[in-house]
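Record 1 of the preview.
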Amino acid sequence: MIVQRRTVSAVLAVVGASALLVTAGCSAGSSGAGESPGASVSASPGGTAAQTSPAAEKTPPAKGTVKVVRTVAEGLDSPWGLAPLPEGGLLVASRDEGTITRVDEKTGGKTELGEVPGVSAAGEGGLLGLALSPDYASDHMVYAYFTSASDNRIVRMLYDAKRPAGDQLGAPDTVFKGIPKGMIHNGGRIAFGPDGMLYVGTGESGDRGLAQDKKSLGGKILRLTPEGEPAAGNPFPDSPVYSYGHRNVQGLAWDSEQRLFASEFGQDTWDELNAIAPGGDYGWPTAEGKSGDTKFQNPIAQWHTDDASPSGIAYAEGSIWMAGLKGQRLWRVPLKGTVASADPQAFLDGEYGRLRTVVSAGGDKLWVTTSNTDGRGDPEKEDDRILELQVT
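->
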């Protein structure tokens, strides 16, 4: 169900589908790296829609490096969404507490903005992804994806740093609702793309059939206007659905050529990193990992679930960087166009426990959050943490 609150502005009214093919724990030191026998790459994303000619693109080295520069903050409770502010600072969502906190990225100091009303945290649900409005400089709106008593939904709130701590969030304006909820597979990642549209990763909430049902919002990547309406140029008329056949999407990122990639939880066999094609079918529940059926889009890389169980991803230095929860490591997937140019490479294996979110910090830097206080980890005294990494 879509909440129709505003007319879409003329500047966002027309975005052609063809354009979307290119839009589409803690001490400093370095970590050893290696490939896992459970990781593999695909020579093609499977199908042609997501492919482009990579001939003119620079290919990153097959091997990269990761250095943990410092601990940015510690003592966070079930951190999930992470949004860097243009004026400095990082907004962090607490899944279980339903609060948003600003972290000073220089000192590690924390200021609670407030609690998001209506969050119903249970199982894998709660306050999940965060994103800043494309017009944040003028409207100071923060978008949040959360589990309510009845569904998963997206709201936006005015952030006013001049108000007292704990009272810096305005009343939530619901821009989209009706995404299926469950104890598992709530998706939750949101991000504004290069086209100014809001992309949303959802899960099938444990009901497998929803992933192939194009009328359902579960098991999809959605593409919306900032007002929560289906974006112009979407592959299915008057529908927010951008791609389908997903099990549980928790990572969204664009490369330097504005191509969209997404990470996805598998069930028992294969986790996936996918290049996203508008209207593409990613196979679940018929296919998990690579498939011989040409109607499905194959992943560009896949992992055994013990090695990954991926959540957030980010793009930096020619590679996709993917956080692993159960795998407790950070994966590097070097790219040439929309294919992996070398085998995935693992870093931080077990050093900081479960890793949840990865965000570009500009250039060769990343911010990564741990996820050891979410009920499935083994937290250390400092957990949960935000790490700053330098990568190649």
